[in-house]
Design a protein that fits this description.
Blueprint (H helix, E strand, L loop, with lengths): L2 H18 L13 E7 L11 H13 L4 E4 L2 E4 L5 E2 L2 H17 L3 E4 L2 E3 L17 H25 L3 E6 L8 H12 L6 E6 L14 E5 L12 H22 L3 E6 L21 H18 L3 E10 L14 H11 L3
Parallel strand pairs: 1-2, 1-11, 2-5, 3-6, 5-7, 7-8, 8-9, 9-10, 10-11
Antiparallel strand pairs: 3-4
């Protein structure tokens, strides 16, 4: 699709979204694709997101590779009994400092709060569920609503450009009434666009897409089962995924954003992008080829607003073989698609 036609379609979706939001969205925010980076943390955020000497240079580097959005993910802790606790006295500055530093650089920000489930029986957010334990369900949603509304109020106070109400909570989707109450409570304190992040294999089962503004998807699609797929094979896999996204967007009358896209240094990056236990020779070059294919696919699909790439640390010395973007080759990959064209 020609760039002009693609941008016209994307802009048309933004006009619709702006009207849905009562004209308060600011259409200039979304007249170009979202090229977003997740600024992550090694711990809980305080001491990293709230430090200007870290966030300022981090945002400068993000702008340098062509990013125009970032997201941070403030944490709350999940207890074994379903309770949720957070520390506003130490965490609120993370949102304030991120917003202020981003504004100075013309960068947009989405707030995407995460539950820290470590120390519970759950190995990821998708496993969180309480079966017939109604008391645990009540604790979970009461705590979740209090915390997420607090985060949404911060997003409103400091002018965040988007807000994600949650992500990957596969085991909670049957509690539709509680989720709709959470969304309504967020609407009561935040007047920007909101989304929810559903994993690539469960977004069709989310029952409340009508209540949010943008369909959020974690884009960890298996795009090729070949042991060493060519660039053409990777692109074919993403075209197939985007065809499905396009149909889903049309069915619901809403645009899509990939709230996460990322790949580990692994020979399984194209087939099992969540798997990071293989770091053989050539795995770094391979995962960057897969990332480049994903970024190009998002740029070329008008029903997809853009991506937030996972992930980038603000603190110096943060090293990981899992999904990391701070190396020179990864930066060059981002720049090649976002800035150099």
């Amino acid at each position: 699709m020609k760039d002009g036609k693609r941008n016209d379609v994307r802009f048309g979706l933004m006009v619709v979204l702006g009207l849905l939001m009562g004209g308060g969205l600011g259409l200039e925010v979304l007249t170009e694709p979202i090229r977003g980076i997740t600024i992550s943390t090694r711990r809980w955020g305080p001491g990293e997101w709230d430090r200007r000497d870290l966030m300022g240079p981090t945002l400068d580097r993000a702008v340098g590779v062509g990013a125009n959005w970032v997201t941070i993910h403030p944490y709350a802790r999940l207890g074994r009994d379903g309770s949720i606790s957070h520390r506003p006295e130490t965490q609120d500055a993370s949102v304030r400092v991120t917003m202020e530093e981003a504004r100075e650089r013309g960068v947009k920000v989405m707030i995407k709060p995460h539950i820290a489930y470590w120390g519970t029986p759950f190995s990821w957010r998708g496993e969180i569920t309480y079966g017939a334990d109604e008391a645990a369900w009540q604790r979970f949603f009461a705590g979740y609503r209090e915390w997420i509304v607090h985060q949404a109020a911060l997003a409103q106070r400091y002018g965040a450009d988007g807000f994600c109400i949650g992500l990957e909570y596969v085991g909670t989707m049957h509690r539709e009434a509680e989720w709709r109450a959470v969304i309504a409570a967020v609407r009561g304190v935040y007047d920007g666009p909101i989304t929810y992040g559903a994993n690539f294999d469960e977004y069709t089962r989310v029952p409340f897409w009508d209540a949010v503004d943008v369909i959020g998807v974690l884009g960890y699609f298996p795009i090729s089962q070949e042991p060493n797929p060519s660039d053409a094979e990777l692109d074919r896999g993403w075209r197939a995924a985007m065809k499905t996204m396009r149909a889903f967007s049309a069915r619901h009358g809403k645009p899509i954003v990939f709230v996460e896209v990322g790949y580990p240094r692994s020979s399984f990056a194209a087939s099992e992008p969540w798997r990071h236990d293989d770091h053989g020779p050539g795995s770094e070059a391979f995962r960057l080829r897969v990332l480049r294919s994903a970024l190009r696919a998002a740029e070329n699909e008008p029903t997809v607003l853009g991506v937030f790439v996972w992930k980038w640390f603000a603190a110096p010395g943060s090293q990981s073989r899992e999904f990391i973007l701070m190396g020179p080759e990864a930066k060059a990959t981002l720049r090649s698609v976002w800035k150099d064209g």
